Amino acid sequence: MNAPTTITSRDNPLLKRLRVLAQDNAAYRKQGQVWLEGDHLCRALLARGHRPVTAVFSETFWRQAPHDLRDAADHIVTVPDALMAGISGLESPAGVGFVWELPKATALQSGAPAVVLDRLQDAGNVGSILRSAAAMGFAQVLALKGTAALWSPKVLRAGMGAHFGLHLVEGLSVDDLAGLSVPLLVTSSHQGDFLHQARLSWPCAWVLGHEGQGVSPALEALATQKVRIAQPGGEESLNVAAAAAICLHASAAGR
Q1: CATH code at 211?
Q2: Do residues 46 and 142 share a domain?
Q3: Can you tell me the distance from the alpha carbon of 158 to that of 124, in angstroms, rounded to the nearest whole number?
Q4: pLDDT for 211-238, tens place per residue?
Q5: If I label 29, which of 69, 151, 152, 226 is the partner at 20 to 30 A Cα–Cα?
Q6: How far apart are the first and last CA of the chain?
């Protein structure tokens, strides 16, 4: 284990960069790095065999930090608790955070099961869908332009580590999906086959649309199958993250 570097100045360049990563949803696109805050996200990264470039500890947490976190990076930094709180985007600041280099941008994977996000706006919904996708065996999540930033701090927290087990591609257009080479299944609240009666293809790509507007007409026109979820309780529609979990589980169970 390398000896930690102690930083005590709020104006230190590293701390300035971390504050931007923690508070600016699009900063990762410019810096090529993400800030992973808290024990759960840090351990999720390590569990997938990844290694951060820098591990940052509050002085209090460093004194009691377990060895796997202490040994996680070659570059280790400790900061006073007050400075750690100044970086944090959480109500209760964590004692540890990692800086991780993002994978180089790559194209979508042809033939792989996928989840397509069509202009979803809510970070909590996007993160929750990533968790469901990873849990149900979908290899990739593809975000069309207008979707909440996949590596933003709020989506990262809502994803709870699912990011590290998925192939993620952002900024796509409808035309880019032609490279998927799998059937597109489109969710709808008022038309199509009922999910519990439908025969679902595998592999496939589930398309989940904007919280208010639903799937765009251009994507609907490409759909191999339209699917709706029976709602005997009489509600008009389901939250998109809840609908995603139900649909993805149906695909996983029917494989």
Answers
A1: 3.40.1280.10
A2: no
A3: 6
A4: 888 899 999 999 999 998 988 787 767 8
A5: 69
A6: 45
Sheet holding 205-209, edge to edge: 167-172, 140-144, 114-118, 205-209, 184-187, 225-228, 193-194
> Strands of 5-6's sheet, edge to edge?
5-6, 75-79, 54-58, 96-101, 33-37
Task: Give the structural domain span for 141.
Answer: 114-253
Alpha helices in the chain (DSSP H): 13-23, 27-31, 39-47, 59-62, 67-70, 81-87, 123-135, 153-159, 217-222, 240-253
Residues 6+ apart with CB under 8 A from 26: 149, 152
Whether pTM exceeds 0.85: yes
Q: Which residue type does 91 have?
A: E
| Structure tokens, 10 | 């709020």
